[in-house]
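It is worth pausing here to work through a concrete case rather than discussing structure prediction in the abstract. The textbook approach is simple: state the sequence, then state the predicted structure, then interpret. We follow exactly that order.
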Amino acid sequence: MKNKLLFSLSCFALCLLLVGFAVGVHGQALPGTGTLASGSTTPPYATINGTVIGPVFALTAPPLTGWTVENSATLSTSNGYIYLTGTSTGATTVRDIYRTAPASTPWTKTFVFDVDISGGPTGGGEITFGPIFRQNSTGKIIQWSNGWGFSSQALNGVNYFNSATSYNSTPQSTHATSNSTMAWATRRFHIMKIEDDGTSLNFYSSLTGNSGEFALAWTMARGAFMTGGPDQYGIATYSNASGTVQVVCYSIQ
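Step two, the predicted structure:
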């Protein structure tokens, strides 16, 4: 009887903890930002017994102006965040926003994304999102992508585009239905980083966003696809299937 009572009390305490976690997510003051209204979609922060858990790096609000919108992308802003929507064209094309990159290398840009997809691919095609390098003089785009495709498989990789309306090739791609690729692609919040170090273009992902906790997913020579390298960066959605993708960008730093 004593053991059963202790077990029941332990279960009750665990339930209280979980309820506290759920309540703490909404309306939580986010490091580096303000407090979102209750019921808003928030990054994964919560306070339990006074301790902040989840990705605890300070968020830097994304710039809300100064973007160029390309290929009929839909850009809007709300609560200090960027909302980018791209609908399918039935062809290999990206809908993107971009701006001027830092004038000198090395530089990095880290993005915190949330994503909603309506009408994902079932019989083929892909829906992806992610940060991009872009070259102003040629319009070439390199997308560090994450998403779904290949008959509902999860995927991530790097895509080359001659322009926003002209696909070139995919030099790096991983797709699967049951391994860590699925776990990465289907995770709600995504922390992705691109880096131009003057010699190479590097593509990273992270679970936490903390310094030193980024995994290098791929690297390429800076001028391999863009002679002279990129001079712009941004965000792109890609859909050659039937779906629409909306990306919410909480932070760029």
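Step three, interpretation. The chain has two domains: 2-53, 68-252. Residues 68-252 form a domain with the Jelly Rolls fold (CATH 2.60.120).
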